[in-house]
Amino acid sequence: HRVHNLTKSADHRWFSKNYECFKEADPEPCLDKNIVGLRRLRTKSWQDIIYNSEHRPDWMAAESVQRRRLFDLALPGTRASAAYRFKSSTNAVPDTWAVNGLQTQHLTIDEQLNLGVRAFDFEICADFEANNTLFACNGLLLVSLGEILDEMKAFLRRMTSEVIIIRASIGQARHAVEVETIDPRYSDPLKRDETDLDRIPGQMVHAAFVEHLGDFLATYKVLDRLPKDEVFENPIVANLVATGARVVYFWEGQQVLCTTKAACATTPMWNATSFEHVRSSGLVFEPHPLGSRPQLEAYRNMEPIC
Predict the structure, then answer these.
(1) DSSP characters for 165-223?
(2) What is the spatial distance between Cα 263 and Cα 113, in angstroms, rounded to a whole number?
(3) Cα 92 from Cα 192, distance rounded (Å)
(4) For residues 35 and 123, what is the distance between their CA atoms, to the nearest angstrom?
(5) Distance between CA 29 and CA 54 in Å, rounded?
(6) With contact defined as beta carbons under 8 Å apart, do 123 and 133 qualify?
């Protein structure tokens, strides 16, 4: 691209021209006019990626990766990872101006995994019109959580040396692309977990993770099988793989080490009093500086990563 040294007045004229074009037209005609200051970013199709051999489905199998600690690696990740398709009832069509800012991806979860992505970000909503079925959401309902997790499970079964990280949280959605107002009914069922005395925050979503990913989840029970000298908070990748703890899952920013209140109460980190203090923030364990959590004899303590 050519470099333009614009004075403030000239810069203002170009800004005004850009603004007027986008105000009156879709992006394509504006881009076709080659307005100064606009840049067209090229998005490769999955077919191009395969043709150019740019996918890395098993990059973590390399010995140099297997012997590293998980959080010492630079893990490729995506934001709003499921925002490549919208539920049909939203009337949203991918790759159109109407979903600008809502669609962040064009590759499916399976394609992202095969490309080499290992860190995923999902906001979760419950479809109150479909028996509170869980969906990824990003202002609108996207792909069902069950479909997402099933794609991940199938990939992990094929690629036996890979470990993935998932960050999930309560999302917001409106009913359709033409509706401007957020509908709280999409998040209310998830928020009820934060006030139900018999449940933990996120338990509705945790149940789906257990159903679809099962023993792949790096819960306390699974991580307790790591070698005795392992660092719980940052394990060596090969040890995670050998133990079967291949999905490290975060809810509202805290690592999920147990998926029900009963299971959490059996861990050495459990403190019923502190739980009542932090549950409104979506947490289960009150955060402690590393190594400062009270140690119980005969148990291996672990500080949940935040």
Answers:
(1) EEEEEE--B-SSTT--S--GGGTHHHHGGGT-TTS-TTHHHHHHHHHHHGGGB--HHHH
(2) 30
(3) 29
(4) 36
(5) 31
(6) no
Q: What's the CA gap between 164 and 158, in Å, rounded? A: 14
Residue 246 contacts residue 164 (beta carbons within 8 Å): yes
Task: List the structure tokens of 8.
Answer: 């403030």
**Rounded Cα gap, residues 29 and 139, in angstroms:** 27
Asked if 270 contacts 264 with a C-beta cutoff of 8 angstroms, the reply is yes
> Residue for token digits 């479809």?
127
Given a contact cutoff of 8 angstroms between Cβ atoms, the answer to whether 126 and 186 are in contact is yes
Cβ 139 vs Cβ 147: under 8 Å: no
Measured CA to CA in angstroms, residue 97 lies from 26, 115, 167, 180 at distances of: 7, 26, 28, 15
Tokens 């101006």 belong to residue:
97
Supply the pLDDT for residue 297: 64
Residue for token pair 């906001």 = 123
For tokens 């590759």, name the residue. Answer: 107
- HSE, CB side, 13 Å, CA atoms: give it for residue 150: 5
Q: Residue 248 in contact with residue 209, Cβ under 8 Å? A: no
In the chain (306 residues long), the average pLDDT of successive 10-residue segments reads: 48 59 57 52 84 95 98 97 96 90 95 98 97 98 98 98 98 95 97 94 98 96 94 96 98 96 93 91 89 72 86
